[in-house]
Amino acid sequence: MKASRRSKAFRVGYTALILLFLYAPMAVMLFFSFNESRSTAQFTGFSLHWYAELFRNSAAQNALKNTLLLALSAAAVSVVVGTLSAVGIDRTRRKWLKSSILSVTNLPLMNPDIVTGISMMLLFVFAARLIGARTMLGFPTLLIAHVTFCLPYVILSVLPKLRQIDPHLAEAAMDLGCSQAQAFFRVELPSIASGVVSAFLMAFTLSLDDFVISYFVSGTGFQTLPIYIYSMTKKRVTPDMYALSTLIFIAVFLLLLLSNLVQARSEKKMRGARN
Fold first, then answer.
1. Is this structure's pTM higher than 0.90?
2. Cβ neighbours of residue 160 under 8 Å, at least 6 residues apart?
3. How many CB atoms lie within 10 A of CB 244?
4. In the Cβ-directed half-sphere of 19, how many Cα atoms lie within 13 Å?
5. CATH code, domain carrying 66
6. What is the reported pLDDT for 81?
7. 139-191: pLDDT as tens digits
8. CA distances from residue 170 to 162, 165, 214 in whole angstroms, order as listed
9. Is residue 47 within 8 Å of residue 34, measured between CB atoms?
């Protein structure tokens, strides 16, 4: 009895330490975003000054707009291409071919970001010289790079959902008069909707967060928020960045909460339909 209590206490304590390690920096950042002064060591009083200062910082707002535009575009393209790729992989009957495709798909997951960033930068520079352009680094190259590293996560999110649905649903729909495309959009896609939404949110957060790859393929005309904050570290990061980071953290937290609610509701409906 005592041994089980000790084991339970150890598990609870270990989990608490992990959560503290993960979320303590965010809690400190959130706390000092309401600080009246610039200090990051002493709280002098509650104030919304840095949130007001954030909305007067045009450079930060422009970087945020660029980041959101890039993240939404990369997530949308990744979900469309990744979902179609996952359907193709799921319908591949040759095991060796399916295994080979999955291995190639998973390479960007294991490849270090700095290697991916440098190699893509060299590719874009080489392509620019081939077409005689002086430079082609900017939004298009950022979008291609972000779609590249988001695709494996989308495929890995959608594939399990495809394996959970009845493989004969599409055949039944086609027997009732649907074309192959209609069967997919009317029967299969609603069944994997929770996986697609989760994949979109994951791709969005990955693109929003990326710095290393973006740093190498961004050029000078299109600056994302991580690159903008990095440029500030050469001097000093102002507390309005704490306010911006806090707002982004809250927004991403709400998106993930919404995603979990949608997924839980979808699984509940599927269990009800089976019963």
1. no
2. 195
3. 24
4. 6
5. 1.10.3720.10
6. 92
7. 888 999 999 989 988 998 888 888 877 777 777 777 677 777 777 777 778 78
8. 12, 10, 40
9. yes
Non-local CB neighbours of 121 within 8 Å, separated by 6+ positions: 137, 216, 217
Q: Is residue 25 part of a domain?
A: no
Residues 6 or more apart whose CB falls under 8 angstroms from that of 61 comprise: 55
Is the Cα dihedral 136, 141, 142, 143 positive or negative? positive
The answer to whether position 197 is within a domain reads yes
**pLDDT tens, position by position, 71-91:** 999 999 999 999 988 888 888
Tokens of 123: 């590719």
Look at the block and give the residue holding tokens 């575009």. 73
Domain that includes residue 139, residue range: 59-240
